[in-house]
């Protein structure tokens, strides 16, 4: 009986979560879509700090749909999500697609780096409810890193499936922008400036540069350790473990550090065989 009660409680939570997400999505001025561990939090921090500098909203407050808009109506309502379809968790198992009439930014990252970072996320950070929504089981969490990354449902192919589907979906969106994590790392000032122009308007170069500096890897790592932000988005799952931190490494091509040459070759083959070449990852 207790087991059934827990399952019902989990299902009700998923349904409440889906209803809130759908409601916010439909009211948003702009939408940012990315797979988990693609740099969304880093971008969120930079955007939030732009509004801190421009409008004086609290520096320790991260933008989350309409919280900053409620402080200053000049700030748009931005909806951050990890997919282009939101499951309703209804009895019929329906899903709702992103609206096509919103400004939509697609943030992408090399699926191999995403899969490795996603592994550490579900091992060390993800809550039970997040794991439940994502369909991640205890058996999944017990997998070794290479087995996880090669698993069709969990690893690189999971990310590839998302990205290929997003490419098809975004063709029907007249106001869209694609940003690569790797581009953001190489030229964050330029990318943030273009992102803000797309989602809102042009901001001064000083505001953009200062926001990038505020959200540098070193600064974010320190602020996460110190508990600077009010949001639990930037709190480590385990204060003593580096791999439990939200800001972990962010290294481009860092996945290779975890595998043998033969294992890396097998992982690379997945990208060559399955990922839409339009993204340019090889």
Describe this structure as you would to a colleague.
The structure is a single chain. The model is unreliable at 238-246 (pLDDT under 50). The termini are far apart. The strands form 2 sheets. The chain has a 4-stranded parallel beta sheet, sandwiched between helices. It has 282 residues and is of the alpha/beta class. It has 13 helices and 6 strands. It is globular and about 50 Å long. Strand 3 and strand 4 (95-97) form a beta hairpin. Helix 8 (156-170) packs parallel to helix 13 and helix 10 crosses helix 11.
Brief rundown of the structure:
The protein has 282 residues and is an alpha/beta fold.
Strand order of the largest sheet: 2-1-5-6
Number of helices: 13
State the shape: globular
Largest sheet: 4 strands, parallel
Fraction of helical residues: 40-55%
Q: Write down the Rg.
A: 19 Å
Distance between the termini: 51 Å
N-to-C order of helices and strands: HEHHEEEEHHHHHEHHHHH
Integer average pLDDT: 91
Count the E strands. Answer: 6
Portion in strands = 5-15%
Assembly state of the chains shown: single chain
- Structural class from helices and strands? alpha/beta
Segments where pLDDT lies below 50 for 5+ residues? 238-246
């Amino acid at each position: 009986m207790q087991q059934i009660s827990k399952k019902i409680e989990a299902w009700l939570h998923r349904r409440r979560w889906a209803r809130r997400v759908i409601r916010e999505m439909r009211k948003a001025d702009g939408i940012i879509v990315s797979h988990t561990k693609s740099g969304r939090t880093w971008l969120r921090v930079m955007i939030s700090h732009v509004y801190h500098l421009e409008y004086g909203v609290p520096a320790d407050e991260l933008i989350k749909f309409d919280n900053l808009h409620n402080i200053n109506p000049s700030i748009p309502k931005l909806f951050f999500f990890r997919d282009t379809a939101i499951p309703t968790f209804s009895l019929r198992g329906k899903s709702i697609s992103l609206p096509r009439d919103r400004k939509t930014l697609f943030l992408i990252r090399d699926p191999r780096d995403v899969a490795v970072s996603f592994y550490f996320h579900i091992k060390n950070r993800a809550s039970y409810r997040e794991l439940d929504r994502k369909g991640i089981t205890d058996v999944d969490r017990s997998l070794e890193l290479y087995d996880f990354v090669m698993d069709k449902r969990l690893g690189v192919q999971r990310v590839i499936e998302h990205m290929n589907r997003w490419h098809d979906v975004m063709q029907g969106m007249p106001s869209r922008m694609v940003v690569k994590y790797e581009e953001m790392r190489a030229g964050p000032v330029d990318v943030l400036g273009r992102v803000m122009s797309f989602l809102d308007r042009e901001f001064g170069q000083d505001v953009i540069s200062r926001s990038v500096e505020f959200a540098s890897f070193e600064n974010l790592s320190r602020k996460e350790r110190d508990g600077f932000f009010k949001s639990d988005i930037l709190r480590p799952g385990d204060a003593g473990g580096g791999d439990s931190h939200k800001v972990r490494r962010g290294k481009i091509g860092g996945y290779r550090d975890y595998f043998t040459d033969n294992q890396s070759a097998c992982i690379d083959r997945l990208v060559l065989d399955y990922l839409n070449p339009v993204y340019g990852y090889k």
